[in-house]
Amino acid sequence: MLFNYEIGLKEFNPENMKINHREAVRAVIIRDNKLLMVHSNKGDYKFPGGGINSGESYEEALKREVREETGYIINNIKARIGTIISRNIDEYEENAVFEMISNYYLCEVSEGQTHQQLDDYEANLEFCPKWMTLGEVIHLNEEILKQDNIDKNPWVYRENLALKALSSILNCKGNQ
Questions:
Q1: Which band of pLDDT confidence, cut at 50, 70 and 90, is reported for residue 50?
Q2: How far apart are the first and last CA of the chain?
Q3: Angle formed at CA 120 by CA 117 and CA 126, multiple of 5 degrees
Q4: pLDDT at 2 over 70
Q5: What confidence tens digit (pLDDT) does each residue in 4-45 have?
Q6: What is the pLDDT of residues 131-140, one digit of tens each?
Q7: CA-CA-CA-CA torsion sign (111, 31, 38, 93)
Q8: 146 near 168, Cβ under 8 Å?
Q9: How many whole angstroms separate alpha carbon 159 and alpha carbon 141?
Q10: Which of 48, 85, 136, 171 is the most buried (most CB within 10 A)?
Q11: What is the pLDDT of residue 171?
Q12: Is 161 inside a domain boundary?
């Protein structure tokens, strides 16, 4: 694996708090020196992907999430390249921690694109696939993170952490 991070709550007593666990997959798709990202109406960018449904394999979840959010079809899952575990106080349950384990996979997609099949919350956020350079995405997400007075999507910090890890690994400076 190229990166492995833990973010959010570091110290909590698991004996006194329930842990609500969710596992997710995120696709890192690079073509012609550009990443396939999902743009939201809040201005941020995220990797295509999401939660794994009960009984679904990682591969099935990756293919479903990328197709739904971008309209592209994964034709090759190369390798898992990183993991980010985030823990926060659960918004929906008292005395609980929400733990999300995001697994990042290097993938390839077919040339053609079908239509998106967005969930309601994704449609409300106006998810839109965009091909961007690594440097562009990092810069735009960092601009979002600098702003204190706006409503940010909870994934922006996590995704920028993964983007920066990719940048240092690929030795990219964002001017490709």
A1: very high
A2: 24
A3: 75
A4: yes
A5: 999 998 877 777 889 999 999 999 999 999 999 999 999 999
A6: 999 999 999 9
A7: positive
A8: no
A9: 9
A10: 48
A11: 61
A12: yes
pLDDT score recorded for residue 16:
80
Strand residue runs (E) in 32-141: 34-39, 45-46, 49-51, 72-89, 96-113, 128-132
Share the mean pLDDT of the chain. Answer: 92
Instruction: Give the chain's domain count.
Output: 1
Q: What DSSP state is assigned to residue 88?
A: E
| Residue 114 amino acid letter | T
Residue 176 lies in a domain: no
Looking at residue 127, the DSSP 8-state letter turns out to be: -
Side chain identity at residue 175, one-letter code: N
Residue 121 host element (H or E): helix 120-124
Q: Which residue has the tokens 């562009």?
A: 136
d(CA 70, CA 110): 12
User: By C-alpha distance, which of 164, 169, 174, 162 is closest to 105?
Assistant: 162
Q: And the tokens for 60?
A: 């099935």
Domain hosting residue 116, numbered range: 3-169
pLDDT at 11: 77
Please name the amino acid found at residue 16: N
Residue entry with tokens 């920066």: 164
Residue 174: inside a domain: no
pLDDT of res. 172:
43
CATH code of the domain in which 54 resides: 3.90.79.10
Whether 142 is covered by a domain: the verdict is: yes
